[in-house]
Design a protein that fits this description.
The structure is a single chain. The chain contains eleven helices and seven strands. With 214 residues, the chain is α/β, with parallel strands linked by helices. It folds into two domains: 127 residues, 3-Layer(aba) Sandwich (Rossmann fold); 58 residues, no CATH class. The strands form two sheets. The chain has a five-stranded parallel β-sheet, sandwiched between helices. The chain has a two-stranded antiparallel sheet with strand order 2-3. β6, α10 and β7 form a beta-alpha-beta unit. The chain is globular and about 55 Å long. It starts with 5 loop residues before the first strand and ends in a 16-residue tail after the last helix. GO terms for molecular function: hydrolase activity. This is HAD-IA family hydrolase. InterPro entries: HAD-like_sf, HAD-SF_hydro_IA, HAD_sf. Keywords: Hydrolase.
Amino acid sequence: MTRIQHVLFDADGVLQSVPGGWYTAMEPYLGARARDFLHKTWKDELPSLAGQGDYMPLLAAALVEYGVTTPVETVYRNVWHNIAIVAETFEIVDALRRCGYGVHLGTNQEQHRARYMRTALGYDDLFDVSCYSCELGVAKPEAAFFTEAARLIGAPPQTILFIDDSADNVDGARVAGLAADRWDHGQGQLSLLGLLAEHGIELPSVPGPVESQF
């Protein structure tokens, strides 16, 4: 079995969450229509996830269509920037790095949220390589996303383990030759540690000092 040397993490659902969920975050503006609105705008957002066009004008138009008078910048800040870091996952990210593994980010984001994650959340300092779909020009679950991620990481695909909460994304990674498994932060830290162990990654203690195995 090829030894895993890098772990590529999805963001939403794995490293971070929207407190209360997306629907709850949108309810102050749309009430019971929040679900319908978000599913419409998520469909509108798809091209921008692959770096094609700007999502903000589309979101602004949808707000007008639904009769929302709050400025788009305010809605975007209060909903799309409403991100909570999952501390337990980041403890494992830190432990992996202390063990000598490469730790990387692989996420579908349009340019504005990607910029917020890079800067305000400091993700550029937390990961060795950050792969945002809007910058790669292709979004998960396309296998090309993972092929490009492996190129940026500078490692053979089979040495990279991808963790995501979407089965479709996991399948796409496997098509590209990566090891991949489905996991979300609701399953807990012990579940993730067990998953890593299945791929030959043993972390002696989390959190706390970890001796390198390389």
